[in-house]
Known about the structure:
Blueprint: E1 7-11, H1 16-27, E2 31-35, H2 40-50, E3 54-58, H3 65-79, E4 84-87, H4 102-130, E5 133-138, H5 142-145, H6 151-171, E6 176-183, H7 189-192, H8 196-205, H9 214-225, E7 236-239
Parallel strand pairs: 1-2, 1-4, 2-3, 4-5, 5-6, 6-7
Helix pairs in contact: 1-2, 1-9, 3-4, 4-6
Amino acid sequence: MRLKDKVAIVTGGSRGIGRAVAELFAQEGSKVIVVDLLPQGKEVVQGITASGGSAEFHAVSVTDKSGIESLFEQINSKYGKIDILINNAGITRDRTLEKMSEEEWDAVVEVNLKGVFICTQAVAPYMKANNYGRIVSAASNVGLRGNFGQTNYAATKAGVIAMSKTWTMELGKHGITANAIAPGFTMTDMVKKIPEEHLEAIKASIPLKTVAQPIDIAYGYLYLASDEARFVSGICLTIDGGTSR
C-alpha cells in the first residue's frame, strides 16, 4: 500500500475527481477525511468503510476559515498528524468577459483560490511539526492556456499553480512538497451534461481522442501524494491527453 497509515484530507471529495481520489487513497491504506458541503460525501465514506477502509465526512466549506481551522485541529488531535492535503474543491460560473457579473467572479475566486489558500494555511503548522507533508492542489489545463468564457476559472487555476510554486520555496525545508495537477476534460457530472455532438467534437480535438475518467486524474494525485514523489515539488502535472502539448 502506497499510503499506508497516512492521514489525508480531500476537499470536494463527494463526487467526480475528488471521489475517485478519496476512494483510491483509502484503497492504498490512507485514513481519508472527506470535506465537502454535498451530502454525497456520506455515501463515499460509507462505501469506503464497507470495503474495509478508514474514512470520515465533514460538511465544512473551504471558504469558512474558522471552520476549517477548527476541523484541522480536530483531525490533528485525533490522529496525531496530517500527512496529505488534497485541495480539490472547486466551482465554475462560466460567462464571457463582458457578461460576467462581479458576483460570478467573486464566487469562483472565493472557492477555487481563497479556499485553497485557507486550507493550506491551516494545515501547514501541523505538517511542519512533523517535518512531513504532501500538498496537491487542483489546477486545470485552462490555467495554462485559458478558455473561452472562463476568465474567472482560468485566473484561479493559474493562481493555484503560482501558489504551489511559492509554497515549495516556503515549506520545502520542513519536508513538505507542494504541487498542482492540471486535468483536461474529465468525465465528471458537469461534462456528462454536454450535448453528445459537442462532446464528440471535444474528443476529436484531444490527441488521445477521448476524455479522461476521474480515476485517470486520481492516479496523478496518488503519485504526488506518495513517498515515490518525495523529490518532486513545485510542478504542475498536466493530465489532459496531450491537449496542452
